Amino acid sequence: MKKTAFILGTLFLVLLLAACSGGNSSPDNSDSKETAGEATEASQNTTTGEAEYTIRASIGLNAEHPQYKGLLKFKEIVEEETNGAIVVETYHSGQLGDDRIAMEALQLGSQEITSPSTAPVANFIPEFAIFDIPFLFPNEQVADKVLDGEVGTKLLKMLEEQNLVGLAYWENGFRDMSNSVRPIESLADFEGLKIRTMENDLHLAAFRELGANPTPMAFTELFTALQQGSVDGQENPLSTIYLEGFHEVQDYISDTHHIYTPFVFLVSKPFFDGLPEDYQEILKNGAVEAGQYQREVNRAANEEYKQGLIDAGAEFTEMSDEAIAEIREAVQPVVDEFSETIGEDLVEEIYQAVEDAQK
Predict the structure, then answer these.
(1) CB within 8 A of 328, min separation 6: which ones?
(2) In which band, very low, low, confident or very high, does the pLDDT at 199 lie, cut at 50, 70 and 90?
(3) What residue segments make up the domains of the chain, in order of their start?
């Protein structure tokens, strides 16, 4: 009986001590730590100018590409102009997802900035397929004038209906062909080639018209597909072919220059609309200034990339004017067909702008 009483008394004492400890120590300690943390954070915001906004900016290409160098320039401009009130985190190589995933994240407001090529943008705004018209621009200088002019601005404004804000055009460049089967020297050489393309209806239709077998695929999957022979070839600017190492698994490269592709510098509309007006202007100006820098870097590097591909053993084909004219004529039915989808007035407007830019 005494033994039972002793055990019961001991259990009572343990429970009493546990109750006292749980009721008085833990919540107080937790609350104290949280309060102290908030006080420290408030002090840092006041004394060190800690960031008010964080921007996550992503691209699909790697860290060596001129596009990423442009993104770093944008980061430098924005952080300096806002005295660190806006911090820009940069992500390359599709770390936050491919172009479509990143654009959808911007629409939802779960990411702030991305800069895709115009081809995937056309899946959101059909009028952007106008930049996929083969052989639209004769050179980079004409492209600059048109993109930075009235037509380019009109298209950027259309993005707002998709919860996106377009601030500027950067440069991806003229797209060229690479493959592992044979040199492409004429229209006939496209026949039967399985070519990776972006997910874009005009691109797909144009390559079918050339006799190829176009296969849409995420860019992040492309190198492995080329390496394993799932596709025979692909089309991208020389900068991408060289920096992504496609020449390691592709023997033949041809300067078809079939499409000039801009990048579109996009901001999430929910995020942009929530910024003070002065910060909005800093982002706008930063996107334009960094874009000018990025274009210069891209163009200066193109000859270097071309030589690098040749030095690495790739067989480089310079297309003749006659071959380009033959290819251009072959895809004209596709241009006529998609002009109706894009809007014939808009197509006429951009052709006029191209003509005016050459005067």
Answers:
(1) 134, 135
(2) confident
(3) 49-357
